Amino acid sequence: xxxxxxxxxxxxxxxxxxxxxxxxxxxxxxxxxxxxxxxxxxxxxxxxxxxxxxxxxxxxxxxxxxxxxxxxxxxxxxxxxxxxxxxxxxxxxxxxxxxxxxxxxxxxxxxxxxxxxxxxxxxxxxxxxxxxxxxxxxxxxxxxxxxxxxxxxxxxxxxxxxxxxxxxxxxxxxxxxxxxxxx
Length: 183
What we know:
Elements: H1 3-23, E1 54-56, E2 59-64, E3 67-69, E4 77-79, E5 82-84, E6 87-88, E7 97-100, H2 109-116, E8 120-121, E9 124-125, E10 128-129, E11 134-145, E12 151-153, E13 159-161, E14 173-181
Parallel strand pairs: 2-14
Antiparallel strand pairs: 1-7, 2-3, 4-5, 6-7, 8-9, 9-10, 11-12, 11-13, 11-14
């Protein structure tokens, strides 16, 4: 082998090694979110349950083409650099725990989806987008509990809303997000 071939062999091996190293690394950033900007509240960290001034629970349920999509447990918990975000889940029930160390903070639904790392606005949910054959709808209701502790939602008070990511979360809200084929 001549010197030029050896030089190009060394450069190629070094470049491939560097590329393999970079592809195998995680930068520790939150999961990719298709929203244009991450809501500022999604970057906040409350750290734990001590000293909370507000703690309430809206519920979000998601349906894509007739299939229920579970909201994962532990969204917003043990993220890189933060043990607990102000909006988080503990299980797959769709119950969002909204927790702040001061009162009067408005939490938009967008902030939760930014923490989760999923796109959600009037154009659709995650990779499911509105087009000529599909629509994305949002319904708002309230829930309560019966004597046995089961969640009860009154279907007669269900209302379609158009706030999507701007909806301000409140206690006992029942939020339905439905991606479906147009009727």
